[in-house]
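Input sequence (204 aa), recorded before submission:
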Amino acid sequence: MNSREYLTEVLRYYRSSFDVSLPYSLGGRDYEALAEFHASTEKYILVRQFRLWSENTDEFVLFSLFEGGAPTLEDISALQASIREHMEPLFVRGGKEKLHDENHMYTYLTMALYCDTMPEENVIRAVKKTRFKKYYEHGMSGYSEGHIYLRCAENGRCWTNPDGREIKRLFKLVDRNLAKREKAQREQEQKTGSPIETGEKSPN
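Predicted structure, token format:
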């Protein structure tokens, strides 16, 4: 399964709980997709007129493909800069100079990268060393956090920065679910003696 086919499966998973836009452009760069998720939790006393507290959490994921190859060190540097210079100002602060929102808990900003061939070691090191965390009003208005996830279709290996471990676990779950479905499909094909059409379309 190449990187585009795998991304198709990932986006199918994301559509169950995220709003997905295909394609998406930001900061002069084109992406295969944007997935966004917004949640709000509220606590009331006795009746809804007396709200005790409210928390808002958000997540934005930009998906990039490197078909027939792998990202370079320059690509990783540009994507790291995009988290700081484009994703955070737009998705967290809405273009404003500062964020003043006592209900904002956190926003996760993720770059999900898919390549067909093994990336160079300096690229993997750059992914692992990615750091971005920004607090608003000394933490009173929450924080934003940057993640980078890189997966190689050639061998199924994946890498992420320390703050991105959660999304790595999520994609591992996608891998397991995909493997189960492929196994079930092979078993069904063996019974029927003909291939089964999945009906899946590419993200473009």
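Checked by second reader. The two ends are 17 Å apart (CA to CA).
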